[in-house]
């Protein structure tokens, strides 16, 4: 029965095309008749897998030339350091696709997952998520990046890879700011994702990318309490996934997230531009490996703090960066001390300041939102990042029956880096506009849907976040991918109308 329906569908497509040609020819605009040939002969029964294989090849060609789709990723995790303390998403790699939970990290560039041969890798996770290992031997599309590959040569120049003369593999070994790290080798393989082409139009898509296959971990990455399958780097360099997909013209050079802070966390992550009229933008510091911004001053209750601007200067390891891979926030000493003093002086007399384990804390009898001041980080271009008390305080339990809240900003030396992590980023839209070298933000309830532009600068919007379209990981309908070409749209609609007549 399925084969008969499929045969009818092929015939109907041919009829629809003939109707279109006839209509064009009879309208007087064109006098030429197009000769059409069926891809599959009517007399032969065609297996569904053959149709699907042909469609997948065609869809790949369409996506290669399509500019402006957005990619939607699910988000899990929270900013609460005593719960998850990180945000993660799912990626599908290899053929057939293998699924991995990876931390969202704007402070690094590489997407890597643990290999089946990984040493010191956790076998289970305290986050309640399954841990998986990439098995290159089971993927039909994998290939190793060799030392002679031009990709490896470019990576070596930025010191995140080295070549093994024995294995001829493009290896890597790098360390994160917290002292943890990973080592392994680079591979080419397919990344599968959902591309949104328009309102309620979604394609199950794929693209070849370079990513890391980690064979060893060290530091906190070896611990099971918050273990994930890898790290998804969203940095500014050419090997990040956002850079690779934009170079293939699959996505624009812009991505956005909205990380939910309350309840169970979660949020929204899209390779595309979230739109909101309240978003303010500030320029990125050029020629930096991270998302460095020009922090100019800090205000408490509208009053500027007496801070030497030199402590915010970007040079070497000094500056101010946005980093979703950091849970808390870090502030240089020359800004931290004036900030804590101003907050302490501004709180209600009923709040009792204390020092706990070297941190500035407060015993609070009522809601912190009513007892603490607003803090504004002011950046170049007039963009202010206004922080509520829950954006800079962390609940640490109880002392003498009173809730204890401590500063979520930790002090670093003046020659260090100010880092704004998830504590500050949560409950806000953040847009990383690499095409225009700027970052924007706006307060937002990240449990709600968002408007997303299909292409930066084009007036086409779709709803993302709480998507109504299917998240199926396989292509089960032959005409699921629809381009913006009116011809194909006409064909699909005509097919929907005519198929019931033949059943």
Brief rundown of the structure:
Helix content is 19%, strand content 36%.
Helix content: 10-25%
- Number of structurally distinct domains: 3
CATH class type of the largest domain? Mainly Beta
* Shape descriptor: globular
Query: What structural class do helix, strand and pairing data support?
Result: alpha+beta
Question: What key phrases describe this protein's structure?
Answer:
503 residues; alpha+beta; Cathepsin D, subunit A, domain 1; 3 domains; 15-stranded mixed beta sheet; five-stranded mixed beta sheet; 8 helices; 19% helix; 36% strand; globular; disordered N terminus; disordered C terminus
Q: Would you kindly provide a written description of the structure presented here, covering whatever features stand out?
A:
- With 503 residues, the protein is an alpha+beta fold.
- The protein folds into three domains: 83 residues, no CATH class; 167 residues, Acid Proteases (Cathepsin D, subunit A, domain 1, Beta Barrel); 166 residues, Cathepsin D, subunit A, domain 1 (Beta Barrel), CATH 2.40.70.10.
- It is 19% helix and 36% strand.
- The chain has a 15-stranded mixed beta sheet that branches. It has a five-stranded mixed beta sheet with strand order 15-18-27-19-26.
- A hairpin with a 4-residue loop joins β28 and β29.
- The N and C termini lie close together (10 Å).
């Amino acid at each position: 029965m399925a084969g008969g329906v499929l045969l009818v569908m092929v015939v109907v497509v041919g009829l629809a095309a003939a109707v279109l040609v006839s209509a064009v020819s009879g309208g007087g605009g064109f006098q030429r008749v197009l000769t059409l040939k069926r891809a599959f002969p009517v007399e032969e029964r065609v297996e569904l897998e053959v149709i699907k294989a042909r469609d997948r090849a065609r869809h790949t060609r369409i996506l290669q030339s399509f500019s402006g789709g957005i990619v939607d990723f699910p988000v899990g995790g929270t900013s609460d350091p005593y719960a998850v303390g990180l945000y993660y998403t799912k990626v599908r790699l290899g053929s057939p696709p293998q699924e991995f939970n990876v931390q969202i990290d704007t402070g690094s560039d590489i997407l890597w997952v643990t290999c089946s041969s990984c040493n010191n890798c956790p076998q289970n996770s305290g986050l309640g998520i399954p841990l998986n290992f990439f098995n290159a031997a089971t993927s039909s599309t994998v290939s190793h990046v060799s030392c002679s590959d031009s990709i490896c040569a470019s990576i070596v120049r930025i010191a995140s890879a080295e070549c093994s003369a024995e294995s001829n593999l493009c290896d890597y070994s790098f360390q994160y700011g917290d002292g943890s790290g990973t080592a392994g080798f680079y591979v080419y393989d397919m990344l599968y994702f959902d591309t949104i082409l328009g309102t309620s139009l979604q394609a199950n898509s794929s693209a070849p990318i370079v990513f890391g296959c980690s064979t060893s971990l060290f530091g906190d990455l070896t611990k099971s309490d918050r273990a994930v399958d890898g790290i998804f780097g969203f940095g500014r360099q050419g090997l990040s996934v956002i850079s690779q997909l934009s170079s293939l013209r699959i996505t624009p050079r812009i991505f956005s997230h909205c990380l939910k802070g309350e309840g169970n966390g979660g949020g929204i992550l899209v390779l595309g531009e979230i739109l909101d009229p309240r978003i303010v933008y500030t320029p990125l510091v050029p020629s930096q490996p991270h998302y460095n911004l020009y922090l100019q001053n800090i205000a408490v209750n509208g009053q500027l703090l007496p801070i030497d601007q030199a402590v915010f200067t970007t040079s070497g390891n000094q500056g101010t960066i946005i980093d979703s891979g950091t849970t808390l926030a870090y502030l240089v000493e020359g800004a931290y001390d004036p900030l804590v003093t101003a907050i302490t002086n501004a709180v209600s007399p009923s709040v009792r300041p204390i020092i706990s384990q070297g941190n500035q804390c407060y015993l609070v009898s009522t809601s912190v939102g009513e007892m603490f001041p607003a803090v504004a980080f002011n950046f170049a271009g007039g963009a202010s990042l206004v922080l509520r008390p829950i954006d800079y305080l962390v609940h640490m339990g109880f002392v003498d029956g009173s809730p204890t809240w401590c500063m979520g900003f930790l002090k670093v030396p003046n020659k260090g880096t100010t880092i704004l992590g998830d504590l500050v980023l949560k409950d806000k839209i953040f847009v990383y506009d690499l095409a225009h070298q700027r970052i924007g933000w706006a307060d937002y309830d990240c449990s709600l849907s968002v408007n997303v532009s299909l292409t930066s600068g084009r007036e086409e919007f779709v709803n993302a976040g709480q998507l109504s379209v299917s998240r199926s990981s396989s292509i089960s309908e032959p005409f699921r991918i629809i381009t913006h070409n009116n011809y194909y749209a006409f064909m699909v609609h005509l097919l929907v109308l005519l198929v019931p007549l033949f059943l």
